[in-house]
Amino acid sequence: MGVATALIFFAAPFYNVAYVSRRLALTPDALQSWVNSVARLIGFGAAPVGVAVTGVLLQRIGPTPTGILFVAGQVIVALVALLIPAIRHE
Q1: Phi and psi (nearest 5°) for 4?
Q2: How many CB atoms neighbour CB 66 within 10 A?
Q3: d(CA 61, CA 7)
Q4: What are the tens digits of pLDDT across the range 15-52?
Q5: What 8-state DSSP symbol labels residue 28?
Q6: pTM surpassing 0.90?
Q7: Which secondary-structure segment (H or E) carries 9?
Q8: 32 Cβ neighbours under 8 A, 6+ residues apart
Q9: Count of CB atoms within 10 A of residue 67's CB?
């Protein structure tokens, strides 16, 4: 579990830089604050939902399958971002 968590926390800054840079590049200046507010609302608002889902999954299927499920989700998101040209290029 520690290795999986370390890998997730290692990859997160790279994802955040790419995500925020792309969002800033595509958003007109007049809408920057609005888009930033909505992005933060969705991001921070999803955190409690994620914690609740994690708790339920830990109780129902156990820690190892839960960890594998979340790592698999991260890998899928990374592969989608890697394979879709529209995400990589402007």
Answers
A1: -65, -45
A2: 19
A3: 22
A4: 778 778 888 888 999 999 999 999 889 988 998 998 99
A5: -
A6: no
A7: helix 2-26
A8: 24
A9: 19
| E-assigned strand segments in the chain | none
Which residues have CB under 8 Å from 88's CB, separation 6+?
Answer: 81, 82
Nearest to 8 by CA among 76, 81, 86, 75: 75
Calpha distance 67→4 (Å, rounded): 7
Cα distances (Å, whole numbers) of residue 37 to 3, 24, 31, 34, 78: 33, 13, 10, 5, 24
How far apart are the C-alpha atoms of 60 and 74, rounded to whole Å?
21
Burial class (CB in 10 A: 0-12, 13-18, 19+), 83: exposed
Q: Could you tell me the two tokens for 2? A: 């520690």
> Residue type at 78?
A
If you search the block for the tokens 């899928």, which residue do you land on?
76
